[in-house]
Give the backbone structure.
Amino acid sequence: MVRFHIKALAAAAAVALLAPVALAAPAAAQSAPDKAAATARLLDYLRNQNTTGFLVIQDGKVLIEKNFPAPAAADAPQFAAFAYERNEEGALLEDVASQQKSFVAVLVAIAIDKGLLDIEKPVSAYLGAGWSKATPGQEARIRVIDVLTMSSGLDEKFAYSAPPGTLFFYNTPVYAITKRILAAAAKLPLDTITRAWLTDPLGMKDTAWRKRPAALASIGNDTGLVTTPRDTALFGLMVLHGGVGDDGKRIVSQANLKALFIPTATNPAYGRLWWLNSGAYAMRPLLGRKEGPLIAAAPTDTVAALGFFDRKLYVVPSRKLVVVRMGAAAADKDFDQQLWLRLTDVIG
């Protein structure tokens, strides 16, 4: 397993291009000037797309790390509600929005490892009856796995709309009860679980749950996961390494980690709170059904933690690749595709 050391990142904070890409070229190796030009084009594109932080790690090497100034309030009026202080390396701490779902999915997998949680049980086994607005009989059939796969059958006000497991509906308020389920199963606060099971073992020193401003809490998810590109990369590397941290310590079992990336029957582009690029079609929030993979330009085995304002964490096992993007919403509607087209020019 290729190791990634945070000290190497710290020494490299001031530069954008740090090491050659360790890939076997199909015909002729890309020249250094070509690679430098491709990297410059990529960074210029990101700068113009409201990016605040970008980090690429391949085969254990930091290829690109760049922090940009935050966008002006006039250009991104909502962004300030998601941004906090900068850390000592100059990276902006940001609420990663719905990316938090994928972090929570890993915590769920760890809870399963510990024998604390059975996702085939009804939600009411952990929260008690009456947590939804469904009838007692309807509610009793909604399992934890249905919440994890966005197929609870509830609407955003927790009213019954379809049998569980039959319809994909990207439902953030209902997702948010997963955090309550975890706390109830472990009999510990979510903050404690997150630190003990995930952030402390991985050395994610700038990551924590914070109470959201009232304007954000009103969407039904009142705590945000605040983190940095480096911490997000450490999380992504653990996923890339099959559940093992940089120090060789196992964080989550390989079996329960892999289960997060099994396509669901209601949306082949979605697993358990993770987005997948291997499906024949994708169901995206507000966009409906789109034929083909989630991102045509990305490798098929890409898994992604995605959040509002184009927060991105891509993990690509076939390329030993982790990519993190923070910032405000990109101007391009096809930002994922455009980013991958330019990134491919860099990594080959």
Remarks:
- The chain is about 30% helix and 15% strand.
- The radius of gyration is 20 Å.
- The mean pLDDT is 90.
